[in-house]
Amino acid sequence: MRVIPVDVGPVTLSVAAAGDGGRPLLLVHGFGGAKEDFTEFLDDLAALGWHAVAPDLRGHGASDKPDDEASYSFEIFRDDLLALADHLGWNRCVVLGHSMGGMVVQHLVLDHPERVAALVLMDTSHASPDGIDPEVVALAVAVLREHGTEVFHQLSKELADPLASPAHERLLRERPGYEAFCDTKALAASGAMRIAMFPRFLDQPDRLARLPEVDVPTLVIVGDQDDAFRAHADRMAAAINGARLAVVADAGHSPQFEQTAAWWAALTSFLEGVAHA
Question: How many whole angstroms separate alpha carbon 191 and alpha carbon 121?
């Protein structure tokens, strides 16, 4: 695996990649995440014949972080991914989107279906996630504006987390360094990005009625404890013709870490089918 900067026009993205020359596979992290949500799997995906690429979205990780809140939206993230695919010389690719990344790749497949060969929607939603309190969102934005990212991060640990689960708590206890890993990603995420995107989670248009337009092989993965997204996964899998639903037992919002073997089996089984279709 290697990490390289890629100029996609308005910003430069930090991109991890393995398997140059393989079948194109783009893995897109979620809100406050980073490419490291997938980097430990890239070499293994390359060994299976994939050119596996995981970028830090703008405002995240080591990518550029514009200070202008207008520089962030689902559509802007989508356009960055298209520019990255162009840079890589990919006309079409398999795309995996996790959480907010799954929302972004829904915009990608619905607006540019010719660019997507297959789709993996992982712990994501077709509209506002369940259990998101508008008052908490407003508080988060106010804290970010007045006090910045570090104070917001400490406050977020004291508030009820809609993404919390027994599986996540178990991982914090049992995997050395996992809490620091999560903290590092969260603290690297831009305050302007968070301020811009928090309200968009609440007011985004519902895409469910458009999902029958998706005409590529699709896998929907969700942890069985991921309450904010579990029902969305059922509805998305039902709406997309021929979609496969994989519910990962004893997993929450990040099944790639919480139940790695089961997540990996679901993903690679699907990818093998795509590769031999």
Answer: 26
DSSP summary character for residue 206: P
Residue type (1 letter), 180:
A
Paired with 262 in beta bridges are: none
Q: What is the pLDDT of residues 237-275, one digit of tens each?
A: 999 999 999 999 999 999 999 999 999 999 999 999 998
pTM for the predicted model, two decimal places: 0.96
Smallest Cα–Cα separation from 31: which of 169, 204, 171? 204
Q: Are residues 56 and 13 in contact, defined by beta-carbon separation less than 8 angstroms?
A: yes
Q: pLDDT by residue (tens digit) across 159-195?
A: 767 778 999 999 999 999 999 999 999 999 999 999 9
Q: Is residue 50 within 8 Å of residue 1, measured between CB atoms?
A: no
> Can you say how many angstroms the Cα of residue 224 is from the centroid of all Cα atoms in its chain?
18
